[in-house]
Amino acid sequence: MSTLGVLTGGGDCPGLNALIRAVTVRAIELHSTPVVGILDGWRGLMEDRTRPLARDDVRGILARGGTVLGTSRQDPYVHGDGYDSLRPTIEAHGIEALVVAGGDGTLRTALRLYEEAGLPVIAVPKTIDNDIAATDVTFGFDTAMSIATDAVDRITTTAESHNRVMLVEVMGRTRGWIAAYSGIAGGADAILIPEHPYDLDEISRIIKTRHSGGHTYSVVVVAEGVDPPPGTELELPIDSFGFKRLGGVAYPIARELERLTGFEARVTVLGHLQRGGTPTAQDRVLATRFGIAAADLAAAGKFGTMVAARGTEMIPVPLAEACRDIRGVDSELYDVARTFFG
Q1: Domains in the chain and their CATH numbers?
Q2: How many helices (H) and strands (E) does the chain have?
Q3: Which residues partner with 125 through β-bridges?
Q4: pLDDT at position 247
Q5: How many CA atoms are closer than 13 Å to the CA of 108, on its beta-carbon side?
Q6: Exposure class string for 102-138: b at 16+ Cβ within 10 A, else e
Q7: Among 20, 26, 276, 305, which residue carries the largest CB count within 10 Å?
Q8: pLDDT at 120
Q9: Helix-, strand-, coil-residue percentages of the chain, each rounded to 5
Q10: What's the whole-number average pLDDT of the chain?
Q11: DSSP assigned state of 164
Q12: What is the pTM of this model?
């Protein structure tokens, strides 16, 4: 293999730099393969924006958040002519394999390029939402969940001090992994996630029961992707790539809970705080293991696959399997959370 390319697409995620470091060092030191970094995701391949990566280039980046290569939501099928948009850059740099780290949208694009144009890709699941199918976990989730849990802990103390209902809105566009885990870990009194319809009458009963029992505060964790309450609308702006910019659904929910309970409700939206900053040790190690496995699969020519964490092992799975569905919070885990509501 003459050159291995690596790109990071979609939203940034704690652990991406650990991944870049691992892919680069493994490819150079074990497989004697030069590595080129693609800048700003697919856009870099479309616009011939790259940088060579040597071992010295990735020293000191393990603990850094974000991605030193940059990222974007640019898509060659939406904003270009598919593989033809990428071909000049790939040929100019002799890229014979490409490690693609991304979430649902990035991986679906990689699969299409592999199936339609034969692009030799190795995929790595990257998302704080933890919703990629065919893998037990994605790196970035542990950091986001830990940040959200810390926020729930902090908000609980001020809720107790001021006898308020506090809503904490966390990320989770279509799946509620961060909300479920941080809610359970933080001892939330209710958790609202997209996978399970919520009943505000039920939530208000929980809150009023707590208050009548002498607990004059409550904490509710809300995933940003839940539907607004019936009869209310949430105006969501559209970004330059056509995606809804989620955030703020906790506000109409808080207003409805105030109306139903008579108790003051306040909202904290964590937003991008959850995916910025230093990755946890768990995410650094996990991303490193993903990167090592990806470099090895590329050297072995096992293209069209995604590295998956299964138990304690890293295994290759067909990329098509990973893109077949979006993995959500199952009923068993949500039942664990519901046990502690109230």
Answers
A1: 3-140+278-322 (3.40.50.450), 142-274 (3.40.50.460)
A2: 11, 11
A3: 102
A4: 80
A5: 14
A6: bbbbbbbbbbbbbeeeebbbbbbbbbbbbbbbbbebb
A7: 20
A8: 98
A9: 40, 20, 40
A10: 94
A11: -
A12: 0.94
